Amino acid sequence: MRGKTLKLYLTAGLFYFSLAVLFTYPLILRLTTHGFGVDEDSPYHLWHNWWLYFSLFVQHTNPLYTNYIFSPQTIPLLYDANAFVFAALTLPLQFITKNVVLSSNLIFLLSFILSGLSMMTLARFVLKEKPFANLVAVFSGFAFSFSPYVLAQATDGHTNLITVWIIPLYTLFL
Question: pTM to 2 decimals?
Answer without folding.
Answer: 0.87
